[in-house]
Write a structure and sequence with these properties.
InterPro entries: MFS_dom, MFS_sugar_transport-like, MFS_trans_sf. It is built from 23 helices and eight strands. The protein is elongated, with a radius of gyration of 27 Å. The longest helix is centred in the first third of the chain and has 29 residues. The chain is mostly helical. Strand 2 and strand 3 form a beta hairpin. The chain has three domains: 231 residues, MFS general substrate transporter like domains (Growth Hormone, Chain: A), CATH 1.20.1250.20; 82 residues, no CATH class; 197 residues, Growth Hormone, Chain: A. The strands form two sheets. It has a six-stranded antiparallel β-sheet with strand order 3-2-4-5-6-7, with no helix packed on it. The protein is 59% helix and 6% strand.
């Protein structure tokens, strides 16, 4: 029998009717996080374009193709493979390229090749191929050529907001509660999401997306804590892992809506409205029992226990007084303790404690690397899926779909073959799949897509389990610090990912190759980490350092509470 607040799950069920309703309601809104994180794939999509064409065009040439309308040329036009030559009613001949236009001087015959004198002019505007992208922020605000960097800055700026939001809302949720943050961030997601659609210029668009990123990240961080504190230890691995699955559903929603709607502001509104029903019932969410107990709000905690018992079909016999023990209140990092000794220990902890010995330094560096490559690979495969050739909407949909089985397999493997033996092979397989892309012939797009999706599948497994694995690799006194610092490396990876995706302009498979090489190297390093399956949680640095080298006979009476605290952090 577990002790402390965790005991309520033994009494009222680890995942019965009450928890199931809360869980699926809460992760429904997590779908919106996946939506907003990946929405930029089509918001800032750049179609084929050329320098503005003169009026009164009568003839058009591109290589061996001729027409009287630019619309007929787009299907044949390839950027970088020569200009489009046009002739006006007045007899002028122009060579149109994406970022400049050239006037042929004294041209007589209308041919594609011309070796006479020319004058170069800058573009006064641009014409776009609207067959695939009817309207995006790129076409609305001409974010091409010298302004191309503005379009490419949109996603990194969003990811910076994700980083800041995780830091801000995670801390605030520990201070004022999980429920208020879930409600506030959900409402702000709706408001900022709709506002993005009506921004009249690029800079306001980026600002609104930045704020949207903050609240989306805040919700994702806090909902992870929320479902963790409402589900018992028997199902916690599954419930926490499948919050990520809801995120993956959001990616698939982006692909479907992007295919159906080609006007960016309508697309943005529909994406925002898709999870708006959550606002109708989120105000009914209760605060978590762990938070109520930690803050001494025992009357509310007792009402919650009675409600849980009622919904789960059990008699309301469990009393708050039975849950109070020496661990009461320990779940909040910022909770002021009466024991001065505990406060003193917390004050002298720093990130340097993770590198106190060569063994721990090696472990910390490897964990950080896994956090980094997990996030980098995740977003490179997701954001870059539209660049793999073939149908970009199907590619993005598959990038989200492959995640769902990856979490199922990851959960089974973690509990059967171990954390290390799941993480390391996943990274190695992902690395090999990505590096094999080099030898794929350019005309076999389906094989490149399969290898890329294999990489996304395996990276998702490693990314999903590193949260729990990090908790088990570090002792109680620095466990929250270890998870927090790993999360920071994760955010760094997400900020770097868009820049990595842009390397596809150099070579279409370069982003996947970079991720593959890093994943393979980090996968090898993961084999040097200790296995933690079946091991009790450690309390001291000495015990943590001894993992994998000798049996640890630590008493596990409060391990369940410590694990919950670290996953929350």
């Amino acid at each position: 029998m577990t002790t402390g607040v965790e005991r309520l799950f033994d009494e009222l069920g680890h995942f019965k009717r009450f928890q199931a309703c809360l869980y699926f309601a809460a992760i429904f809104q997590a779908i919106s996080c996946g939506i907003h994180y990946l929405a930029s794939v089509f918001l800032v999509q750049t179609p084929k374009f050329l320098c503005d064409a003169p009026s009164n065009i009568t003839d058009i040439l591109y290589r061996n193709h001729s027409s009287t309308s630019l619309a007929d040329i787009w299907t044949h036009y390839k950027p970088g493979d020569g200009p489009v030559v046009v002739r006006t009613a007045g007899g002028d001949q122009w060579e149109l390229s994406p970022c400049l236009k050239v006037l042929r001087l004294d041209a007589i015959n209308f041919k594609y090749e011309f070796f006479g004198n020319k004058t170069v002019e800058s573009c006064g505007g641009f014409v776009y191929d609207h067959s695939e992208v009817e309207q995006s922020i790129v076409t609305d605000w001409d974010l091409v050529c010298e302004k191309e960097w503005l379009a490419k800055l949109a996603q990194p700026t969003f990811m910076l907001g994700v980083l800041i939001g995780a830091l801000v809302f995670g801390d605030v949720a520990d201070r004022i509660g999980r429920r208020p943050i879930l409600m506030a961030t959900s409402l702000c997601q709706f408001l900022f999401g709709v506002t993005v659609a009506f921004t009249g210029n690029y800079y306001l668009f980026v600002l609104m997306r930045f704020l949207l990123a903050m609240v989306s990240s805040g919700y994702l961080v806090v909902v992870f804590v929320y479902v963790t504190e409402f589900t018992g230890i028997k199902v916690r691995t599954w419930t926490s892992m499948h919050v990520h699955a809801a995120f993956a559903v959001g990616i698939m929603v982006v692909a479907i809506v992007g295919y159906l709607v080609r006007v960016w502001w309508i697309y943005q509104i529909i994406l925002t409205l898709s999870t708006s029903p959550f606002l109708l019932y989120c105000w009914k969410f209760p605060e978590t029992p762990f938070y109520l107990m930690a803050k001494g709000r025992y009357k509310e905690a007792q009402e919650l226990l009675d409600t849980m018992a009622y919904f789960n079909g059990l008699p309301p016999t469990l009393k708050v007084s039975e849950l109070k023990d020496e661990c009461d209140g320990a779940l909040l990092n910022d909770n002021k303790q009466e024991d001065g000794k505990v406060v003193e220990v917390k004050k002298r902890l720093s990130i340097l404690d993770m590198f106190g010995s060569l063994k721990m330094a090696s472990r910390s560096a490897t964990c950080w690397a896994i956090w980094f490559i997990g996030s980098l690979g995740y977003y490179v495969f997701s954001l870059g899926s539209v660049n793999l050739g073939g149908n970009q909407y199907i590619n993005l949909f598959l990038a989200g779909a492959v995640e769902v089985p990856s979490y199922l397999i990851g959960c089974f493997a973690m509990d059967r073959v171990g954390r290390k033996k799941t993480c390391a092979p996943a990274l190695l397989l992902g690395g090999v799949a990505c590096m094999l892309i080099i030898v794929v012939p350019q005309d076999i797009e389906i094989l490149a897509l399969v290898l890329s999706m294999t990489g996304k599948f395996t990276i998702a497994i490693a990314f999903g389990l590193i949260y729990l694995y990090t908790c088990e690799l570090y002792p109680t006194i620095i466990r929250s610090l270890a998870v927090g610092s790993g999360s920071m490396m994760c955010r760094v990876g997400s900020v770097v990912a868009p820049f990595c995706v842009y390397l596809a302009d150099i070579w279409i498979y370069l982003p996947q190759l970079i991720v593959g090489i890093l994943a393979f190297i980090i996968g090898i390093l993961t084999f040097f980490l200790p296995e933690t399956l079946g091991q009790p949680l450690t309390s001291t640095l000495e015990e943590a350092e001894a993992l994998g080298s000798k049996p640890n006979k630590k008493n596990t009476a409060v391990d369940v509470l410590e694990m919950n605290q670290s996953i929350k952090a």
